[in-house]
Amino acid sequence: MSKKSIILAALLVFLLTVPAGAKTLRFAFQGDVKSMDPYSLNETFQLGFLGNIYEGLIRRGPNLEIEPCLAERWEILEPTRWRFYLRKGVKFHDGTPFTADDVIFSAQRVRHKNSDLKTRLSDKVKVVKVDDYTVDFITPVPNPILHVEWGTWHIMSKSWCEKHNATIPESATGESENYATRHANGTGPFKLVSHEPGVKTIAVVNPHWWDSSKEHNVTKVIFTPIASDATRVAALLSGQVDMAYPIPVQDMKRIERHPDCRMLVGPELRTIFFGMDQFRDELLYSNVKGKNPFKDKRVRQAFYQAIDIEAIKKKVMRGLSQPSAMMIAPGIIGWSPKFKRLPYDPEASKRLLAEAGYPHGFEVTLDCPNDRYVNDEAICLAVVSMLAKVGVKVNLLAQPKAKFFPKILAPKLDTSFYLLGWTPSSFDSWNVLYNLHNCPSESGAGKFNIGGYCNPKVDELTAKILSETDQAKRLKLIEEAWTITINDIAYIPLHQQALAWGVRNHVNLKQRPDNVFSWRHVVIK
Amino acid sequence: MIALIIRRLFQSFVVMLAVALVAFSLFRYVGDPVSQMVGQETSIADRERLREELGLNDPIIVQFSRFVLNSLQGKFGISFRLGRPVKELIAERLPATLELSLVAALFSLAVGIPMGVYTGLYPHRYLSKFFQAISLIGISLPTFLIGILLILIFGVILGWLPTFGRGEVVKLGWWSTGLLTVSGWKAIIMPAFTLGMFQLTLIMRLVRSEMMEVLRADFIKFARARGLSNRAINFGHALKNTLVPVITITGLQLGSIIAFAIITETVFQWPGMGLLFLQSIQFADIPVMSTYLILIAFFFVLINMIVDILYHIVDPRLRAEGAVV
A240: which chain B residues are within 8 Å (Cβ-Cβ)? Predict the structure, then answer.
């Protein structure tokens, strides 16, 4: 065979194996999908990735609006009884039809003790099959936000799980691997082909997807986790991936300058804030003995006003942050432009400290992660020097998240002053009030209220917000609660960091404010 | 010889046990895996239950003995991070690391020895000075910097070579190889060069100084007096006599190439064991970390043993003594 004919043959094989119009999306992220089991880990990237393969009863649109998905519509028959009408004619990737049995099965599986998504559906909710395409959810008390987190409660196939012995989520202590860890069978727009942890994951388009309004034209997706920032940026610049995120702030200009790339930047829903120990009678890490300065609102306010948030935005975040007066981001239900940050005012700060009995400041240790949020350690360092200007000596303890979280989270609560970030997975204020602002109790309220802020009035309002079904009244209650906590200076909110996605110009996509990359909006030119 | 091997095996076992114990006692300082195994909304009671189930609340010595007992039965447990058997994870990653290390080692030998011989024979030529300068760069620049510079030049600016990954791999049973595809070879060039650069300069400098040393020896003078050709003297006699230290260093360095491929693998997102190990540290994935350390200790021990045996083959003096040792 001559050289020419070999080339021709190769070309022919190539043409035959690659269907006309094949569009491959290659993208990189800093971490990997931990498991293909949709109930194994309650984490944004994990669930966002699986949301392309699995689907929930609802889904979130590009601006986080709730859209019908596997449920065509739903109605509230009575305040404690929700009826969901399931979409007919939907098939799982293995060809089995989707019915009410799968919803009932998924409701059991997601509430199993090994599941990490137990918060999606309370144990007390009864799930009742009405017919093959109708399911009722009966709640013990009215719950107007029952379904808001269901965009990430992915429905699994009952028959598939039973066939492969995967009816319960993987247990961390098991000796063997659960089938669902590396295989997936959803109803979504893409089918999983292969998953090699830490190397790459391949998915192809699901030609039988139910959504006829499909806007994407992707036929294959190749995902590569690239941990090193520089390598991820290089992969994008050299055109080996079509999209990469997150992009470190210092590399954004380079991508902007590249003729074939662009940056997509938008505010993220996570709010970064400082918390202070307000429940101990003496701080664990301070030179003030016998009393706790943070119990005094004036001290909290002094700390607040000593922080120059614009300087942090400009110097540390390079303009890519949105200073925040609230503990929630714009876009979260309950956010209001009415609230304004206290002004940066070191003089006022010094005065407040003096009034509180600390004219020369005091010493305290700040716990800070160094690999969790954008420039987390740099933010803490900046704040250390800002507080030094008003006489407070801050000792910074910046640690990797594997060390940081167990130290500050319950049950240890081993901190006096800390930096943390929070995104409510329901995109609703109630979650933030309940987890961060309620008095910590056995019931689970205030679970992440590390500083032990406690105002019974807020607890009362939070309970009302949960069961109030009238939207206008509910918003009013939320605003009332925020007014109290902001006035109390329960926390010192800093900012919302920016989402930073690098994209090649031939790819069009939509950036969701919760940092989820949804492939169903991708159009490749 | 057999006695030597058996004795060596026994020592190796003790070494490995010691490595495992030291490593294990360090693990308590890497942090708590539980906070990363679950999402932010998981309740405290659930976290505690998980910690109990994983045995993280047991004293370190209990955890260690459990690990050793399980390892002896070939049970390395399941990764906290990925929920998959550690044995499988390592087996998947091993070929990538071994291929990279071997290519890097061969590259450093194939280039380092001739460069060393040349600079040893003709220390005053310009080319020798040039080689010397290069070797200084290789020894003083940190690996990650070389890697990033290469990516920038050949990956981003010139666009000749892929910036990350292994390219296409072919499965040969459980072994996956990138050495049978063009994209695989393209992908290995930069990581192997980065990883081998330090060894290359080390070998070059070693061969050079040994060569210069040996060339002054009496037996070389006699050889010249006998009228042997330069080629026979330089390569047949001189080079052969420089090889013992070269083998030692190469052997020991091969171990460190494998163990310290971590940085190169991270820079190039090379899907080998080093990358797995690094990700596991960040996650405090104890089963993977402990298995990796045991494996690396095993490699070192194994390589040392092979080096010892090679000595006996290369150096006849040792063979004679071997009977008494």
Answer: 155, 162-164
The structural domain count of chain B equals 2
Cβ pair B85:A177 closer than 8 A: yes
> Does one domain contain both B170 and B248?
yes
A405 contacts B164? CB cut-off 8 A: no
- Quote the minimal CA–CA distance from A346 to chain B in Å: 35
Based on the fold, state whether residues B154 and B290 are members of the same structural domain.
no
Mark whether B164 and B243 lie in a shared domain: yes
| CATH code of the domain covering residue B165 | 1.10.3720.10
Question: In terms of Cα–Cα distance, which of A267, A238, A270, A272 is closest to A255?
Answer: A238
Q: Does residue B319 surpass a pLDDT of 80?
A: no
Q: Is the dihedral of CA A250, A383, A370, A270 positive or negative?
A: negative
CA dist A432 → A121, A421, A447, A491 (Å):
18, 11, 11, 12
Same domain as B67, residue B108: no
Rounded average pLDDT over A257-286: 93
- In this complex, do B83 and A226 lie within 8 Å of one another by their Cβ atoms? no
Q: Using an 8 Å CB-CB cutoff, list chain B residues near A113.
A: 46, 49
Res. B87: pLDDT tops 70:
yes
Domain spans, chain A: 3-225, 271-498
User: How far is B111 from B117, CA to CA, in rounded Å?
Assistant: 10
User: Would you give the distance in Å from CA A316 to the centre of its chain?
Assistant: 23
A45 to chain B: closest CA residue:
B39
| Residues in chain A closer than 8 A to B282 (CB atoms) | 371, 400, 402
Return the CATH architecture of domain A271-498.
Answer: Roll (3.10)
Residue B75 to residue A175, Cβ atoms within 8 A? yes
Three-state SS at A149 = coil
Which residues on B lie below 8 Å from A234 (Cβ)?
148, 151-152, 155-156, 163-164
Residue A244 CB contacts under 8 Å (≥ 6 apart), including other chains: A27, A28, A29, A226, A232, A233, A235, A236, A501, A502
CATH number 1.10.150.20 is the correct assignment for the domain at A3-225: no
- What residues make up the domain containing B34? 1-81+283-325
Q: Does residue A11 register a pLDDT over 90?
A: no
Model ipTM over 0.90: no
Q: Can you give the C-alpha Rg of chain A in angstroms?
A: 25
Tell me if B41 and A174 make a contact (CB, 8 A cut-off). no
Query: Distances from the Cα of B150 to the Cαs of B201, B237, B308, in angstroms?
Result: 18, 38, 36
Question: Which residues of A280-415 form beta strands (DSSP E)?
Answer: 321-323, 363-369, 393-399
Whether residue A371 lies within 8 A of chain B, CB to CB, comes out as yes
d(CA A396, CA A382): 11
Do B294 and B276 lie in one domain? The reply is: no
Which of B81, B152, B266 is closest, CB to CB, to A227? B266
- Establish, for the pair of chains A and B, how many residue pairs have beta carbons separated by less than 8 Å: 154
Which residues in chain A have their CB less than 8 angstroms from residue B36's CB? Answer: 401-402, 405
My answer on whether B131 and B200 are in the same domain is yes
| Chain A residues whose beta carbon lies within 8 Å of the beta carbon of residue B81 | 34
Output A287 or B308, whichever has higher pLDDT.
A287
- Give the integer Cα–Cα distance in Å for B225 and B221: 6
Question: Which pTM value belongs to this model?
Answer: 0.81
